[in-house]
Design a protein that fits this description.
177 residues; alpha/beta; 7 helices
């Protein structure tokens, strides 16, 4: 198998030699990426339960290839950064509601944030949502720095992908900043 010989049309990007990655949220993706010697990105921003095991499986079983001589691992983190911890939890509530809608079979636009997520989602749904979104960091600059450092130290990625499902465009830009 030579991934460089594949005829993948990446639009946009055709002709730019877009690298092939395996994206996964389970051990299967980790095993496949390791077997093929490809870079691996884990979708921990919505499925963090197997993150540690997937990273280990990928690294332990990695076969060097024409693409990579050693494993290259990335994982995704939801980030909700704001000037205050309270504001950060407020902007995060949009993502919590949207994810609750998705797992309830009611996908749609990202809802507006709410002041108290406990008044919007029942405890069981909120527990499920927070478990699925547990690879998230939320808070002011100091909180975000500490939480990101902890996640990065724990999983030792080569790269991280930041997700920011924040309803207000300006708040989203500020969070990324």
């Amino acid at each position: 198998y030579d991934p460089m010989q594949q005829h993948v049309r990446a639009i946009p990007g055709e002709g730019t030699k877009v690298p092939i990655w395996i994206l996964g949220s389970s051990l299967y993706g980790a095993q496949l990426a390791a077997h093929l010697g490809l870079p691996y990105a884990f979708a921990s921003h919505f499925a963090p339960q197997a993150l540690a095991q997937a990273a280990k499986v990928y690294r332990d079983r990695f076969n060097p290839s024409a693409v990579l001589d050693k494993p290259y691992f990335m994982f995704a983190i939801n980030v909700f950064a704001a000037s205050t911890n309270e504001e950060a939890h407020y902007i995060k509530s949009s993502h919590q509601q949207g994810f609750a809608n998705l797992i309830s079979g009611r996908p749609g636009l990202l809802p507006r944030p709410v002041k108290d997520i406990n008044q919007t989602l029942d405890a069981m749904t909120l527990d499920s949502v927070n478990s699925a979104l547990s690879c998230s960091v939320t808070g002011d600059l100091a909180s975000i720095t500490t939480q990101l450092s902890t996640l990065i130290a724990r999983y030792q990625p080569d790269e991280v992908m930041i997700n920011g499902a924040i309803h207000d465009h300006d708040a989203r830009l500020k969070s990324f900043e």
